[in-house]
Write a structure and sequence with these properties.
The protein has 465 residues and is mainly α. It folds into 3 domains: 14-207, MFS general substrate transporter like domains (Growth Hormone, Chain: A); 209-257, no CATH class; 261-465, Up-down Bundle (Growth Hormone, Chain: A), CATH 1.20.1250.20. Helices cover 77% and strands 0% of the residues. It has helices at 21-52, 58-83, 86-105, 109-137, 143-171, 175-192, 212-232, 239-254, 269-298, 302-305, 307-326, 332-356, 360-388, 394-422, 426-444, 456-464.
Length: 465
């Protein structure tokens, strides 16, 4: 017995080990840069609009990328399922970089918007392609760690992005906010390339859903209708009718992309999906126009105006961490309804600031509270969605959450843009509208949990909610 030797089992290499270091770093860098670009553009867009005389295109510069991003998500998912993630990732990064370059070199607002559309198409596809890369390159045990790193890569830009982007704009030019990211994107992609050698399609690629092409068609129709909504509102004599027609087309196209009953707020999963779109539409539209309000009405510079985004991002991440620590001690339903109420309060505070000319501190404090509301309810909506979905429909449900995130924000931004351009008190009209969307979210929030369930699993969900 004394001669018996136990051979230790070697530990599996971690995500930062030599085997995975560069793909981990490159993937996180791509996520970080996409997030930084998003928050940086929100900070500097008022300066861009003033420089290029682009007030009419302001909303489309944000709604457009969200809409084309939906097409990118669906297309990259279908392509990766059938052919593997390598080609979709290369193509999406190239589109994203080309869009950045076009924006950085733009001398008109129309050219900048065109670049933003390419950015959105590539950015939406990057996220999906990277998720497939994670699934094929990393062992399953590493997936939670990688996705946690991706989440952190989205949070950090909210803390440092506004100050960096505002400083670059004030010291150099807003052009360099776009151009500076192009080289960083190329460097990040080079880190990922070695890990992609030998990565191909999954063995079950032949079993890819035959409904995929139709899903892409409906996503394209929904995205194009949102883009059309931004363009037809100013048509003399027909603007209102064409706008309503565009909204109707988007609703028709959205129906196959979400669970049945979503658009009528059916209790349970459909209301979870709908609330996600309402919350995203209200909060992200306000996020876009708040720096604009501080710049135009209060004369703040880009760096100072971006402070509202920093505080909102910080409170979002803090509240998200707190709800994670509370776990089951904070029921899902209570987290969602409380978070939605906080969001409505922040929207109302910003509306009062814009309509009554209150001190900007009212809006900034309100937005910090709203960020906490988003951090409180957003993770619980994801948890509820997966818990209420049938196992075979979790992929479709996850897709519906993402799509309604983007289209909800894009639609609200489009309507906000029409109100801002068409009414004399533009900021008051915008924040009045998003506050109304916040009221709708508060009404839907109590419907995210079911009242009667026969399944033991769903009964457990109902008790915890």
């Amino acid at each position: 017995m004394s001669d018996l030797k136990v051979t230790p089992v070697p530990a599996e290499p971690g995500v930062w080990s030599r085997a995975f270091f560069w793909v981990t770093l490159g993937s996180c860098a791509l996520v970080f840069l996409a997030a930084f670009e998003n928050i940086a553009v929100t900070t500097v867009m008022p300066a861009v609009s003033a420089d290029l005389d682009g007030a009419r295109w302001y909303a489309l510069a944000f709604a457009g990328p969200l809409a084309t991003g939906v097409i990118g998500m669906v297309a990259a998912g279908l392509w990766a399922d059938r052919k593997g993630p390598v080609a979709p990732l290369y193509t999406s990064v190239a589109l994203f970089a080309a869009g950045l370059l076009a924006c950085g070199l733009a001398t008109t607002m129309e050219a900048l918007v065109a670049g933003r559309l390419a950015q959105g198409l590539g950015g939406g596809a990057i996220t999906v392609a990277l998720y497939v890369v994670v699934g094929q390159v990393f062992p399953e045990a590493h997936h939670p760690k990688i996705f946690a790193l991706f989440a952190a890569a989205w949070v950090v830009p909210a803390l440092v992005g506004p100050a960096i982007a505002g400083g670059i704009t004030e010291l150099l030019s807003w052009h360099w906010v776009f151009l500076g990211v192009v080289g960083l994107v190329a460097a990040a992609m080079l880190m990922v390339v070695p890990a992609l050698r030998g990565v191909g399609a999954r063995e079950d690629a032949a079993a890819a859903s035959s409904h995929g092409p139709w899903l892409l068609v409906w996503a394209a129709v929904a995205a194009l209708s949102v883009l059309a909504l931004n363009l037809v509102g100013g048509v003399s004599g027909l603007g209102v009718a064409l706008s309503l027609a565009a909204i109707a087309v988007m609703v028709v196209a959205l129906r196959p992309l979400v669970p049945r009953g979503t658009l009528t707020a059916r209790r349970g999963l459909p209301s979870v999906i709908l609330l996600r779109g309402l919350a995203a539409g209200a909060f992200f539209s306000g996020d876009v126009y708040l720096p604009y309000l501080l710049t135009e009405e209060y004369g703040w510079g880009p760096a100072l105006a971006g402070l509202s985004l920093t505080l909102g991002g910080l409170s979002w991440s803090t509240a998200s961490a707190v709800q994670g620590q509370l776990g089951a001690r904070l029921p899902h339903g209570r987290a969602v309804t409380s978070g939605t109420a906080l969001i409505l309060g922040s929207l109302a505070a910003t509306f009062a600031t814009a309509a009554l000319g209150l001190h900007p501190a009212v809006a900034i404090i309100g937005w910090t509270v709203g960020g906490a509301g988003m951090g409180l309810m957003y993770p619980r909506l994801s948890t509820l969605a997966l818990g209420l979905a049938a196992p075979a429909e979790r992929g479709f449900t996850s897709s519906a959450l993402t799509i309604l995130d983007s289209l909800g924000a894009a639609l609200c931004l489009a309507v906000a843009g029409l109100l801002f351009a068409g009414l004399s008190h533009g900021f008051g009209a915008v924040f009045g509208f998003v506050t109304a969307v916040g009221v709708a979210a508060v009404i839907v929030a109590p419907r995210v949990t079911r009242t009667r369930e026969k399944s033991p699993v769903n009964e457990l969900i109902e008790v915890n909610a």
